[in-house]
Amino acid sequence: MAATLLFHLPMTEHDSQQFLRDLDKKLWSAADRLRSNLDAAVYKHAVLGLIFLKYVSDSFEARQREIAAGLRNAKSEYFLDPADYKSPKAYEAAIHAELEERDYYLEKNVFWVPALARWQKLQDSAKLPPGTIIDVKNGKTWQYKLTSIGKLIDDALDAVEKENPKLKGVLNKNYTQLQIDPANLGKLIDNIAEIPFLHAELNAKDILGHVYEYFLGQFAIAEGKKGGQYFTPKSIVTLIVEMLEPFSGRVFDPACGSGGFFVQSERFIQAHGGKLGQLSVYGQESNPTTWRLAAMNLAIRGIDFNFGKEPANSFTNDQHPDLRADFVMANPPFNMDEWWDAKLEEDPRWKYGTPPAGNANFAWLQHMLHHLAPNGSMALLLANGSMSSGQSGEGDIRRALVAADLVECMVALPGQLFTNTQIPACIWFLTKNKKARAKFRGRAGETLFIDARKIGYMADRVLRDFTEEDIELIVGVFREWKSGTDYEDVSGFCKSADLKLIQQHDFVLTPGRYVGAEEIEETGEPFEVKMPRLVADLKIQFKTSIKLDAAVRDSLKIIGYEL
Predict the structure, then answer these.
(1) Could you tell me if 427 and 547 are in contact, meaning their C-beta atoms sit under 8 angstroms apart?
(2) pLDDT of residue 165
(3) Between 220 and which of 189, 227, 269, 537 could a Cys-Cys bridge form, CB atoms 3.0 to 4.6 Å apart?
(4) pTM, whole model, 2 decimals?
(5) Range of the domain at 544
């Protein structure tokens, strides 16, 4: 596309972010216009499946260009010498044949894309009438009969899946059943074709990964309560990852949704000078369609992952029974009431008490602890009730967790952070080892409480969000406390408490109980001076109010009304 050439211009980091924001709005606006009456939950898979197909095709073509250049470069390991061929035509034929060798792509972890699924072929074919015979060249020429655009996309995705074992069962091949007008589906393909992969600052993985994540968030908002089950706000994910600091090792999410914690963990490593692959990713998700979303989300970024053999219930069909992870993080459904199964009675995971059958909060917490390595750390988003409830044995479980010195930090969050619930939430940070090691001091018998309920801003009329500065504030306090450098309790915000203090509060872990009231800055104005001033101001406001009342009454009389 000619427009793509614009993205070669040198750009600053600010320009790159502005480019992505403009791209987000343009693509979402165009895609949403084509949705018509189709439910967002259905349309989501149509859009995200095509974005994935665009990514694998773009990556394949980029690698193909590298190989083509190497085949003609005498200094390259791939070089084909023209002198070895009888004619220029034979040489070009050999070049084209080599470009279809799978090993060139697999050695760079690039998905092999069959000819039918390559984006330009797909885009061109989508404009043809049903019944058209399409010539497809994939080493040899064969023919494909076009019956519908939906069937074409399904066949393309099926071909990609068959050629790449890692994608087995991952791609959502149901475009034939989607009730999208063929013309709109063709326009959607053209719309996604405008996602560029040439940019001065960003590569295809960065751009398409960003677009994929943005669309996940927009669909979560569009779906409301249902959509939020697979999407955790980016700022909350960032906060948790920055506090856990997963530099290397095994990371596990037993309710992984669309895989946001894994993506942010890899970003954290790269931002701190590490490399992709320092983390081994393990996840589990019970919803089949969400399981596929997560797999595509990670595949786009080149992150290797193990999500088990199939989508499955974490409690009754644990896909990683022997896993002991260095970092465990999750945002499971809050207060899930229909989770219990009779076979969970006497389960070894319930080391600190059997969770109530009517609420899975402490089941999730203990399931995660069960999978945590001896020196591991974990973070869990739960409803605020988990910090204080004494019903059905929850208070006893909480008491046992504190007594075992597992609770490292409690963070109370502000409301309106989630698309799927208005229930106030908190973050539990737990660790199995508070002993001094590396850059951390010994913290045995201590728990940090952070009350972040007043932090953040309203991103719109419905949702609240954190700024980067908000995240840095919370993370900074946590790191200072763990390292023992420059930490101080701040009234109304943070407090380091020992076991004795927690016992005095009957093992309730609500931060507000510990941090106290925020200190109000004294103005230095004596009461005998302040009070007369305030009374005088109030008199002036009363007089102004009386004048406004009279003016309103006069105006109403003019038009025939009277109070």
Answers:
(1) no
(2) 85
(3) 227
(4) 0.78
(5) 526-563
